[in-house]
Amino acid sequence: MNKNIHHEFAYQSRELGIQIEDTLGEPPDLKNYARVIASLLGEYAKGTEIDDVNLLSFALADHLRFDDPAGLFAQCRQYDSGDAGQVIAMVSCTDADAGKALAAVAASNPELARKAIITAFLFKNTKRWTDADNSLDALQEEEEENGKGGNGMEDEDHVAPGQDFVDLFDTREDGNGGQH
Questions:
Q1: How far lies 121's CA from each of 15, 56, 90, 124, 156, in Å?
Q2: What integer best gives the mean pLDDT of the chain?
Q3: Choice between 120 and 146, residue whose per-residue pLDDT is larger
């Protein structure tokens, strides 16, 4: 995962994908999906307080146009703080109801709007930030960081078996394990 993306935004983005899949169902029921989205947008537009990042991003995801992708990526570093007004200015809505919903939430809970916009942005741009570096150099560097040189942990391949493990093979039950 990209180190510039706060882990909570990454989590919310993945959860958004699951929520969309679950709502669509198998086989996908687009009419039901559209009704759910319309209902959520209607609730948000009339000012109903639903303080849930995932639900708002779910309602808005298909109706947001991300006008400043670089700026939105820059806002992904901090989950609990950021410039809500700036984030809201980086998007526009392709649907009037979505625009009303976003405006209502932005007025009453700008932090919720900021988090939902960034979550929807990351969901819609997954390939831009989830590409893991699986090159040999990156894997070796990760192994070195996590191995003996990194946090003091021993390499699992070079650890002697513990006494409990040895006692599993103690056929004489004298506590000496395999030592006969």
A1: 13, 12, 11, 5, 40
A2: 80
A3: 120
